[in-house]
Design goal:
eleven-stranded antiparallel beta barrel; mainly beta; Porin
Length: 292
Amino acid sequence: RWMISYRYMYMRMDGNMDGAASLSPQDVRDAGYMAVPTDMDMHMHMFGAMFAPLDVLTIGLMLPVQHMSMHHVGGMPLGAMEFDTMSAGVGDIRLSPLVRLFESHQHQLLVGAGILIPSGATHVRGDTPAGAQVRLPYPMRPGGGSVGALPSLTYTGSTGIVSWGAQVRARLPLHDNEDGYRLGFEYGGSAWGAVQALPWLQVSARSSVDRRENISGSDPDLNPRMVPTANPDNQAFTRVRAFVGVGLTAPDTILEEHRLAIEAGLPLYQYVDGPQLGERFQLMAGWQWSPE
């Protein structure tokens, strides 16, 4: 049995924060930075495939393609100049074996031992007031440059009409990359529930808690006082998010093997090591095909 999928995610970030407090661009300038990011748009296309060679084993592969743009206003000595930076490219591939530890009529427990493959670029350049084709800061890079571990533990339950579940997960880069830094460890958990409202319509709600640590080491080609995103100590955050979504199927038709889903969410709480842009909302849409 196998499945192929495509997911699109859009994330909007704007307004600077430190801790849980909002900062004005002037607050960031007063902290000594020469440029201030004001907003960021990220688009991610995720191409996935899953294959189950055994009843208890599923192997997943996910290839992300990202496009990011960030708007800035200048500080001293750049004056009031405004500028944008953009980057695009393939991100880090995820290879994710899942083993079913337990299954009953309504419940199952899965453990994941995934691997993060550093296929995304870290040497990303763009034009800024500081010069042409300069190295862009950490959030503008599609890849992390390090092999990583992706452990997870997932529980799901279902009565047929009502389903629910919970997951804990982590992203753990295992070594410094060739530029002398390692992205911060990420930990997260989520819980969800869904109701089959109609034969073709599922309605869902989900909550998540995510923590990311600061970067270990630094890229010697970045000046951490140029812009907050170039400072490895301005990358950590804790965010609590809430999502609602719908899933669409077409039972008893030629499209019954296909599923569409849309989900939207926003942060209920965020605490950042700043100055750092705050998150405003996320939008996700996906398609999957599971041939019988």
